[in-house]
Amino acid sequence: SAVPRGLALSLALSLALPSVALENGLALTPPMGWLSWERFRCNVDCRTDPRNCISERLFLEMADRLAEDGWKDLGYKYINIDDCWSAKHRDAAGRLVADPERFPSGIKALADYVHSRGLKLGIYADLGTHTCGGYPGTTLDRVKQDAQTFAEWGVDMLKLDGCYSSAEEQAEGYPAMAKALNATGRPIVYSCSWPAYQGGLPPKVNYTILAEVCNLWRNYGDIQDSWDSVLSILDWFFANQDVLQPAAGPGHWNDPDMLIIGNFGLSYEQSRSQMALWTVMAAPLLMSTDLRSISPSAKEILQNRLMIQINQDPLGIQGRQIVKEKSHIEVYLRPLSRAASALVFFSRRTDMPFLYTTSLAKLHFPEDTVYEVQDVYSGKIISGLKTGDNFSVVINPSGVVMWYLCPSALPAQPWHIGREQVPGEGFHPVLL
């Protein structure tokens, strides 16, 4: 039977239009796992520091921790190698090889072990003459060869950095690597540093193209083990949320960099804040900490089930800052599937706990709706909260209160159907 003309036209158009995301079907929710860089950097001194150097031992031990300590079951699946894993020179055939002293079994054996534990292995390369740490880079003529090598090793994710390359080389090389990875036939999640090297913003960065090339991308500078670093990332992301927020979605994510919870620079409250704010940003949850010695309190933050459920919400909408008060309280909102929402009340104060009073109506939630609210950290439930009801939360200095809200009675007009109708959408931060 003939296809109706309107349908035929729309089919033709849909075939002609570029896809809106990298066509590898991967990272439909933000990737979760562990990455070596922030905590272990480029420590290659295995003679004096065998426990903490970049070596197969480190990754085998972290894989064991992910598999045995409850991480894997919560979705933390990736064990990601960062810079400084390779030998200083390629082999006779021009292939990348792991440092033979630090990775005597080679990367394929490491990948096999990681897979045997129900996990996935990530690796690092750099689109340039050298990696940032001075190891062999992936120049344009090596892109296909390196993609093939990683696929043969059984790699599941590639982070492609951008040291020692020009803007022109990056514009050619990042899409070329996406093609090369797809051509291997192995599903490899592709993490790009491309926008970070171009300042993260239009016109230099085209987020439409980026979403067609990469599964996730670093937009901004590296995180350091400090609260100042977390705040600088947060400030940049939300100052530019009108550009960044629409760019994210299933298969293509903004990456504000690693979780540093469990290290040395964040207090307990600040650790809870990073976790909540990264979750609202729909950020990849890539921990960079020593899982062999992590404290119970840091582990509890990182293993919060409701938090992870919110982060992994299938709609994949990145949240926004919707209120910025003169009192240094900020409110962030992320729309979720099934008409639910996540709210984060964040205090930048440094004096004492602050009693913050507002209502869902003031936060532009739909009228005449009743919500059941769960506090993500305490687990406490508030039933029957109406949009117009005033409520108060006590927020500790540099801390958060995070809520998960589900409508228990929907309004006559369900606002959650269209993406443009979610609460707080199109609503710019105001100083009250």
From TrEMBL:
What SUPFAM superfamilies is this protein classified in? Answer: (Trans)glycosidases (SSF51445), Glycosyl hydrolase domain (SSF51011)
Q: Which terms does the record give in the GO molecular function aspect? A: alpha-galactosidase activity; alpha-N-acetylgalactosaminidase activity
Give every Alpha galactosidase A C-terminal domain span. Answer: 316-399
Name a GO CC annotation attached to this entry.
Answer: lysosome
Reactions accelerated catalytically: a neolactoside IV(3)-alpha-GalNAc,IV(2)-alpha-Fuc-nLc4Cer(d18:1(4E)) + H2O = a neolactoside IV(2)-alpha-Fuc-nLc4Cer(d18:1(4E)) + N-acetyl-alpha-D-galactosamine; a neolactoside IV(3)-alpha-GalNAc,IV(2)-alpha-Fuc-nLc4Cer(d18:0) + H2O = a neolactoside IV(2)-alpha-Fuc-nLc4Cer(d18:0) + N-acetyl-alpha-D-galactosamine; a globoside IV3GalNAc-Gb4Cer + H2O = N-acetyl-alpha-D-galactosamine + a globoside Gb4Cer; Cleavage of non-reducing alpha-(1->3)-N-acetylgalactosamine residues from human blood group A and AB mucin glycoproteins, Forssman hapten and blood group A lacto series glycolipids
Q: Which UniProt keywords apply?
A: Disulfide bond, Glycoprotein, Glycosidase, Hydrolase, Lipid metabolism, Lysosome, Signal
The EC code for this enzyme is 3.2.1.-
Q: Where in the cell is it found?
A: Lysosome
Under PROSITE patterns, the record lists: ALPHA_GALACTOSIDASE (PS00512)
Q: Which domain of life is it from?
A: Eukaryota
Which biological process terms from the Gene Ontology are attached to this UniProt entry?
glycolipid catabolic process; glycoside catabolic process; oligosaccharide metabolic process
Q: Which residues belong to the signal peptide in this entry?
A: 1-21
Q: Which PANTHER family match?
A: ALPHA-GALACTOSIDASE/ALPHA-N-ACETYLGALACTOSAMINIDASE, ALPHA-N-ACETYLGALACTOSAMINIDASE
State the similarity comment.
Belongs to the glycosyl hydrolase 27 family.
Give the protein's function: Removes terminal alpha-N-acetylgalactosamine residues from glycolipids and glycopeptides. Required for the breakdown of glycolipids.
Query: What is known about its subunit structure?
Result: Homodimer.
Name the chain's protein.
Alpha-galactosidase
| Species this chain originates from | Halcyon senegalensis
